[in-house]
């Protein structure tokens, strides 16, 4: 009987035509090698070797689970388009433990849809046009107005200050520089260090400290909730406090625990990824002077038109004129790959290109591998914003860098994921980058003050914080920052 059962099990295993690969050590598999830090403008030595040996689709054992890793553009798109049918989100339990079981990042099914609807309503196109654009410009200018000529500062920290203050204001109406805002920011920094650390819940570890900071942050948010409920009950709510907390309390049926995790996850998503993307743009641009020059010309034209009209604040029409800026943003996201891979799980047996993906197996679509694929992007390690234009140019090089074929690579450019779980804040992130770049190139020149580069840990980060030296103000257009002091400070 036992021998017959063993034969049946072996037959069942043999029916799957799994991709080639190496399962590695028991339990840990190849996780340590996969997560080893590497340059963010590459896929890393580990993945490069695996692709060369096994191809763009291979099997492994990562995060304690049997895994199919995909560097294949077609499979990645297939996975994301079949979210909820053939695949579902499946992040490691350590991520859920620190972000919360009601975090949008780990939720699946109807609950994720409901949380996503709340986020999309808050980040709607109408709200971006009428409210958030002004908020983004205000917080950009508040940060840039503190920069002094010839000073050295951490561009990564400045970008994080900008995005954190923006999200704290629009989620809970917290003012920049206020003691409680600064205290929350301090706790959040500790929290973030744990999110990107090894999930070791031991005394003194970054993960344990992050869990403690999570508890502190949630208590803070809950106090804010109780204060807001009391004001609403007394009829004293401030109608001008058009924030997410107010909206959720008034228009949703979420429990307290669900609201806490929603706010924490939006603070995480809206702050961390956008700040890294802005830091990446600041890092890439000095290596491409022609891009900076074209950006300045584009934004000078907008600034001159504003001056002639007598208007001060940017509006949606101004934003839509930032065409080359959008090319810079796309190229920054392609080359820097803030979101490098996603965690999914097969909920049914799937066959793709002759390979089987068994139900229950983890699937990792590696977005970065596609964005850095030389078959899709010519000279993929080169920062070339013109590749996003039909009539492309060059970036100070002797060879022409081709634009992506819209029928091929354009379809596989997925910096914000795709399918039903497409990042709800993608349009806000691009707006933040565009407005920050607008005021940055008009008012400052900068250079790297020390050698630094983005590394994947697996989240993208600058080990030294990206120190830059602010060299010079442009007198012709520095009125914007001066105006910021009078309007916002």
TrEMBL record:
MF-aspect GO terms: heme binding; iron ion binding; monooxygenase activity; oxidoreductase activity, acting on paired donors, with incorporation or reduction of molecular oxygen
Gene3D superfamilies from the UniProt entry: Cytochrome P450
Subcellular location: Membrane
Highest taxon of source: Eukaryota
Name of the featured protein: Cytochrome P450 90B1-like
Annotated signal peptide: none
One Pfam family here: p450
Similarity comment text for this entry: Belongs to the cytochrome P450 family.
The encoding gene: LOC111301072
GO biological process, one term: sterol metabolic process
Membrane topology: Single-pass membrane protein
Cofactor(s) listed in the protein's UniProt record: heme
């Amino acid at each position: 009987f036992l021998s017959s059962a063993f034969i049946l099990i072996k037959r069942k295993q043999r029916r799957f035509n799994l991709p080639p690969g190496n399962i590695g050590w028991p339990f840990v598999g190849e996780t340590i090698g996969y997560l080893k830090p590497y340059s963010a403008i590459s896929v890393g030595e580990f993945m490069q070797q695996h692709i060369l040996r096994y191809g763009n689709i291979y099997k492994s054992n990562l995060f304690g689970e049997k895994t199919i890793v995909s560097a294949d553009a077609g499979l990645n798109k297939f996975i994301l388009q079949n979210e909820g049918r053939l695949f579902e989100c499946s992040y490691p339990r350590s991520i859920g433990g620190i972000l919360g079981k009601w975090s949008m990042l780990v939720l699946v099914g109807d609950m994720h849809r409901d949380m996503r609807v709340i986020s999309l309503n808050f980040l709607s196109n109408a709200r971006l046009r009428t409210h958030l654009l002004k908020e983004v410009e205000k917080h950009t200018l508040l940060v840039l107005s503190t920069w002094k000529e010839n000073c050295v500062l951490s561009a990564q920290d400045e970008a994080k200050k900008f995005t954190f203050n923006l999200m704290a204001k629009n989620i809970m109406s917290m003012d920049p520089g206020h003691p409680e805002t600064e205290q929350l920011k301090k706790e959040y920094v500790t929290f973030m260090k744990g999110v990107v650390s090894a999930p070791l819940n031991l005394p003194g570890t970054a993960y344990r400290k992050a869990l403690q900071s999570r508890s502190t942050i949630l208590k803070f948010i809950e106090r804010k909730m109780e204060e807001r409920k009391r004001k609403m009950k007394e009829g004293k709510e401030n109608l001008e406090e058009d924030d997410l907390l107010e909206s959720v309390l008034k228009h949703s049926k979420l429990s307290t625990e669900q609201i806490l995790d929603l706010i924490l996850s939006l603070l995480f998503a809206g702050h961390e990824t956008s700040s890294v993307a802005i830091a990446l743009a600041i890092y890439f641009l000095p290596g491409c002077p022609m891009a900076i020059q074209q950006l300045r010309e584009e934004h000078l034209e907008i600034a001159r038109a504003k001056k002639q009209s007598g208007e001060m604040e940017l509006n949606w029409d101004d934003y839509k004129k930032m065409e080359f800026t959008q090319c810079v943003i796309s190229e920054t996201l392609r080359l820097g790959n803030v979101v490098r891979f996603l965690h999914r799980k097969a909920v049914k047996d799937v066959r793709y290109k002759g390979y089987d993906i068994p139900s229950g197996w983890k699937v990792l679509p590696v977005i970065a591998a596609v964005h850095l694929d030389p078959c899709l992007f010519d000279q993929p390690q080169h920062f070339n914003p013109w590749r996003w234009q039909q009539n492309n140019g060059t970036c100070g090089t002797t060879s022409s860098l081709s634009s992506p074929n819209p029928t091929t690579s354009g379809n596989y450019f997925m910096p914000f994921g795709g399918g039903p779980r497409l990042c709800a804040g993608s349009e806000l992130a691009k707006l933040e980058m565009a407005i920050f770049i607008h005021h940055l190139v008009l008012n400052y020149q900068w250079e790297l003050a020390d050698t630094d580069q983005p590394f994947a840990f697996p989240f993208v980060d600058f080990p030294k914080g990206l120190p830059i030296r602010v060299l010079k103000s442009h007198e012709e257009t520095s009125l914007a920052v001066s105006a910021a002091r009078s309007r916002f400070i």
